[in-house]
Amino acid sequence: MSDTSVSLEESWKAALAGEFSSPYMQQLKSFLVAQKQGGKRIFPRGSEYFRALDLTPISSVKVVILGQDPYHGLGQAHGLCFSVRPGVRIPPSLVNIYKEMQTDLGIAPARHGFLEHWARQGVLLLNSVLTVEEGQAAAHQGKGWERFTDAVIRKVNDECESVVFMLWGSYAQRKAAFVDATRHLVLRAPHPSPLSAHNGFFGCGHFSKANDFLQSRGRSPIDWQLPTDPQDIEM
């Protein structure tokens, strides 16, 4: 994954050039190539590894939501954390995210799980690990992606102003522990999965808090209401 071979939105390509030229990324590329040559099916497809960055240039970032791994089922992952392709059943964690949005903002739950509408407004939907093997959760942890996404978060922390970090669950909270809370708004809550949502995710009010903060800093709020038809989202 040299910086000359990666197809990536230009502001991120420039900001992360040092990462792409580093040995760990070369090792990660070799690992992924070997996996594919060995007949393993990798999600998401290669053109969508960096979809979160492509849709949300660094200068546009207003909110960061951190996930852990891509969904490992066929047809689910497309490069944005918590999001699934149109027509795919809404995952349980996203169902709970929609429930909290309804409580917080009065927004009726969408009937799809396609979140590109958020990403195009400046919500960086970033997984910690950007690839996974089909049917094998966490198969690509510890291969280098975590170091890369740490660098992404660090760039946002250092180069952006007045960003909201929504850190759901202990993993996300550890990963972004270095974020400067004097310049950004850091919101913490349990993970929205069915195992933990009732321990404080429900009622956290993060969506209204995010918009209140953005407006207090002179930034436009996020329209969290998703289009009824995901085809209405510019692809």
TrEMBL record:
Molecular function terms, GO-annotated: uracil DNA N-glycosylase activity
Catalytic activity: Hydrolyzes single-stranded DNA or mismatched double-stranded DNA and polynucleotides, releasing free uracil
Alphabetized SMART domains for the sequence: UDG (SM00986), UreE_C (SM00987)
Location(s) in or outside the cell: Cytoplasm
Domain Uracil-DNA glycosylase-like: 54-214
GO cellular component: cytoplasm
Keyword Membrane: no
PROSITE patterns per record: U_DNA_GLYCOSYLASE
CDD domains: UDG-F1-like
Key words, A-Z: Cytoplasm, DNA damage, DNA repair, Glycosidase, Hydrolase
EC number: 3.2.2.27
Family named by the database record: Belongs to the uracil-DNA glycosylase (UDG) superfamily. UNG family.
PANTHER family recorded: URACIL-DNA GLYCOSYLASE
Name assigned to this protein: Uracil-DNA glycosylase
Gene of this entry: ung
